[in-house]
């Protein structure tokens, strides 16, 4: 797998874990700390590992790469520098909640474009939860610094509607590859959220990931959340496993157990409660450059249980 394809996969698989965070979009940053480590051993200088991820020599061969947007009128003669892989994905979800809570219905559109060492992502979400409707928009940038280091920053903001969405959020994660094979990666990050009410939180996260030679990736991490008001310190642990090949399929599973700093439901906030969340995702290529993914999720806490599913289509370019 080339560096270009690996960057696209890294950003492609993160949202599948990202969207397993059903209680609040704010909590998706925990999944980022893990998923940003997905296949980091392949990013730069991991040629040995890269060769194991390609389904066939024909698919791994990349002759001349057509610049992104070259077929769009008005852009075909312009040099954008976006000569790496990218993708578009559109999906929706439905979740049913216990305790007479209204169902959730969400829609999202995500896009990624890249150069040799940079990937840029954008996402728009329409979320109807707890009887409210809101929109959330986010941007992200992943940068390969050298053969051992890479990192990501992301920021987002919510619309006026939907108190459950943060007013704004920011995250930064730094990753370091270890061992001579660069199959082991450790990472650390920091994040900050400001709600539309009085709540704020800071997140401190650390994790590790290992890429096995037989198309299996395992990762785990811990997040400490300092929530205000109340000076609450909540800890949550996550583990995830991914199996599969690029251009064929991926099977992913994720579990999180710990405590949540706070959650906004309507005009009310609940604080420092236990959580146990699980998700499974199947991503299948139907053609060389397009396919679908399906996710099933379960969230549990003392206030309600949630069971939901996500269906999406994607197009690689």
Overview of the molecule:
The chain is built from 4 helices and 14 strands. The chain has 317 residues and is mainly β. A hairpin with a 4-residue loop joins strand 12 (268-285) and strand 13 (290-300). The protein is globular. It starts with a helix and ends with a strand. The model is unreliable at 1-6, 15-24 and 26-66 (pLDDT under 50).
CATH architecture: Beta Barrel
Structural class: mainly beta
Distance between the termini: 15 Å
Radius of gyration: 19 Å
SSE string, helix = H, strand = E? Answer: HHHHEEEEEEEEEEEEEE
Assign the CATH topology. Answer: Porin
Short note summarizing the structure:
With 317 residues, the chain is mainly β.
List keywords for this structure.
mainly beta, Porin, 4 helices
Blueprint (SSEs and pairs):
Elements: H1 3-18, H2 28-35, H3 47-52, H4 57-60, E1 87-97, E2 104-114, E3 118-129, E4 132-144, E5 149-158, E6 168-178, E7 184-194, E8 200-211, E9 216-228, E10 232-245, E11 249-265, E12 268-285, E13 290-300, E14 305-316
Antiparallel strand pairs: 1-2, 1-14, 2-3, 3-4, 4-5, 5-6, 6-7, 7-8, 8-9, 9-10, 10-11, 11-12, 12-13, 13-14
Helix pairs in contact: 1-2
């Amino acid at each position: 797998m080339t560096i270009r394809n690996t960057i696209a996969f890294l950003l492609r698989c993160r949202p599948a874990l990202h969207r397993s965070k059903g209680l609040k979009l704010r909590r998706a940053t925990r999944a980022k700390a893990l998923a940003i480590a997905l296949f980091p051993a392949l990013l730069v200088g991991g040629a040995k590992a890269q060769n194991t991820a390609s389904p066939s020599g024909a698919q791994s061969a990349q002759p001349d790469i057509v610049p992104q947007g070259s077929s769009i009128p008005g852009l075909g003669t312009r040099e954008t520098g976006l000569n790496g892989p990218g993708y578009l994905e559109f999906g929706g979800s439905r979740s049913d909640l216990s305790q007479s809570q209204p169902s959730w219905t969400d829609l999202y559109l995500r896009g990624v474009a890249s150069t040799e060492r940079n990937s840029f992502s954008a996402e728009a979400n329409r979320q109807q939860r707890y009887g409210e409707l809101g929109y959330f928009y986010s941007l992200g940038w992943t940068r390969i610094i050298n053969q051992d280091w890479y990192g990501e920053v992301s920021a987002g903001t919510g619309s006026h509607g939907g108190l459950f969405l943060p007013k704004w959020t920011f995250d930064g994660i730094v990753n370091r590859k270890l061992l001579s094979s660069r199959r082991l990666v450790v990472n650390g990050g920091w994040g900050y959220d400001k709600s539309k009410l009085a709540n704020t939180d800071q997140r401190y996260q650390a994790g590790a990931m290992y890429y096995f030679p037989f198309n299996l990736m395992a990762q785990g991490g811990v997040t400490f959340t300092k929530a205000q008001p109340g000076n609450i310190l909540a800890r949550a642990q996550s583990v995830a496993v991914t199996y599969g090949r690029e251009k064929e399929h991926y099977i992913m599973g994720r579990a999180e157990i710990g405590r949540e700093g706070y959650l906004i439901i309507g005009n009310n906030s609940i604080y420092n409660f236990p959580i146990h969340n699980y998700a499974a995702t199947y991503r299948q290529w139907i053609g060389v450059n397009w396919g679908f993914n399906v996710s099933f999720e379960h969230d549990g806490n003392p206030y309600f249980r949630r069971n939901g599913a996500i269906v999406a289509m994607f197009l690689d370019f």
